[in-house]
Write a structure and sequence with these properties.
Layout (H helix, E strand, L loop, with lengths): L1 H40 L1 H22 L2 E5 L15 E2 L1 H6 L8 E4 L13 E5 L19 E6 L19 E4 L6 E2 L4 E4 L5 E3 L16 H7 L4 E6 L9 H8 L5 E4 L12 H9 L1 E7 L3 E2 L5 H7 L4 E5 L14 E2 L6 H13 L1 H6 L7 E4 L3 H9 L14 H6 L2 E2 L7
Parallel strand pairs: 1-3, 1-4, 4-5, 5-6, 6-7, 10-11, 10-12, 12-14, 14-15
Antiparallel strand pairs: 2-3, 8-9, 8-16, 13-17
Length: about 400
């Protein structure tokens, strides 16, 4: 019996050994297949196919997916941000806003998606306090873009930005170094339809040696008043009110609104018409001396047959065509500015020459949400990490307190 048991044990050991060998062989085979698969998929051998496959999947995603944007708070009391609906879809983005990239939805309804972290971007209007009951989102996705949006200068920011370090991923302001530029107006080339300005390096045509516009020429003879200014904010960081008062020492400046002695009802078409018929110049003075900051008052004046006299912190060559405006900061003294205004206003040929740009450019406007939508659709955007570590310094350091002209 002892010998029989020994034979059985030996047989068992042989069987176990065979199974172990088979298992080892199987493991080697699986390992070899894994290695071969990894080698086949390695960029060393398959880089073009890997790239092609990724781009094809990315293309399918970008053409079929819709980015969703939430407007977190109001825009000066307007929950729609001057848009036509509480929620705009791709059709409105295409037909109303005329966005080249329109596969986006924009909504002010916080319940539009089931969870706040599902939005691709959330836009915060920093010129107003965030809602008390809903100050900031409680949940946040790492691939979600928080957008700092402001059309007003830094002095109009209504909350402390030093509490929001690293909070924002994108900026949407009038500044030309913003991620999404949001200007009050644009200049388009009439021949090409391309946007020329505002731009950090616009390519302007050269003003002609001589120019005539019969409409402006005829209007010039009836313009009996020098300058007009419509204003309601009387004490400003730029001290524009001091400049206007100093100008009144040398020439006639009619100031309309609560800051002056003249009145013109808001919305009265006569207020705009008299700029064409009565006045030579319009004072487009800004309330802050900040980089790139120009307001709708300037672009409104460009629609009229009047020369704007600008005063602000912008490099106006990045905003307007040359010889289409008079920049107060190009003069050392108010007396020098007044002398030049008297020269231009008294010479019809010189006055008319300031309107040469209308033969080549036209005024237009666009929605910043078009550029925001395009940015959200940019390849790889959701996989990048960008944040403003010190949004306050980026925003506030664009301004100064002293002008170049001596007041």
């Amino acid at each position: 019996m002892y010998g029989h048991m020994s034979m059985a044990a030996r047989s068992g050991r042989l069987i176990c050994g065979s199974r172990g060998a088979l298992l080892l062989l199987l493991l080697i085979l699986v390992g070899t297949l894994v290695v071969l698969h990894r080698v086949a998929q390695s960029p060393l051998l398959n880089q073009y196919e890997i790239l092609q496959d990724h781009l094809e999947r990315q293309q399918i995603q970008s053409t079929r997916s819709t980015r969703v944007v939430l407007l977190w708070n109001d825009f000066f009391g307007d929950p729609r941000w001057k848009l036509s609906w509480d929620t705009l879809g791709p059709q409105e983005m295409r037909d109303e806003l005329r966005c080249p990239v329109y596969q986006c939805e924009i909504s002010n309804q916080h319940e539009f998606l089931p969870a706040v972290e599902l939005y691709d971007a959330i836009v915060f209007h920093a010129a107003e306090m965030y809602p008390i009951l809903r100050p900031v989102p409680l949940q946040r996705s790492p691939h979600q873009a928080y957008v700092f949006a402001l059309m007003e200068p830094p002095g109009e920011t209504k909350h402390r930005l030093d509490d929001e370090r690293g909070f924002y991923n994108l900026t949407m302001t009038y500044r030309l170094d913003s991620d999404v530029v949001w200007p009050y107006g644009q200049l388009l080339d009439i021949e090409t339809g391309a946007v020329v300005a505002p731009s950090e390096r616009p390519h302007w045509r050269k003003p002609p040696a001589s120019f005539n516009d019969s409409v402006v020429w005829d209007l010039w003879s009836g313009k009996t008043k020098t300058a007009a200014w419509f204003v309601s904010h009387c004490e400003t960081l730029s001290k524009r009110e001091i400049l206007a008062n100093r100008l009144q020492e040398f020439l006639n400046v009619d100031i309309y609104g609560k800051c002056g002695t003249h009145r013109c009802a808001r919305g009265d078409p006569h207020c705009d018409e008299m700029l064409d018929t009565d006045y030579l110049f319009y004072l487009a003075f800004e309330n802050s001396l900040c980089d790139d900051y120009v307001t709708e008052k300037l672009f409104d004046a460009l629609h009229r047959n009047i020369i704007p006299v600008v005063f602000g912190g912008a490099d106006y060559s990045r905003i307007l065509p040359p010889h289409s405006y008079i920049d107060a900061n190009r003069f050392e003294t108010v007396a020098g500015l007044a002398q030049y205004l008297n020269f231009v206003g008294g010479d019809p040929a010189e006055y008319v020459s300031y309107f040469w740009w209308r033969r080549h450019y036209r005024l237009a406007s666009s929605s910043p949400f078009c550029d925001l939508c395009a940015r959200l659709h940019a390849p790889g955007f959701g996989y990048k990490t960008q944040s403003y570590g010190d949004i306050q310094s980026w925003w506030f350091n664009s301004c100064r307190l002293e002008s170049q002209i001596r007041l």
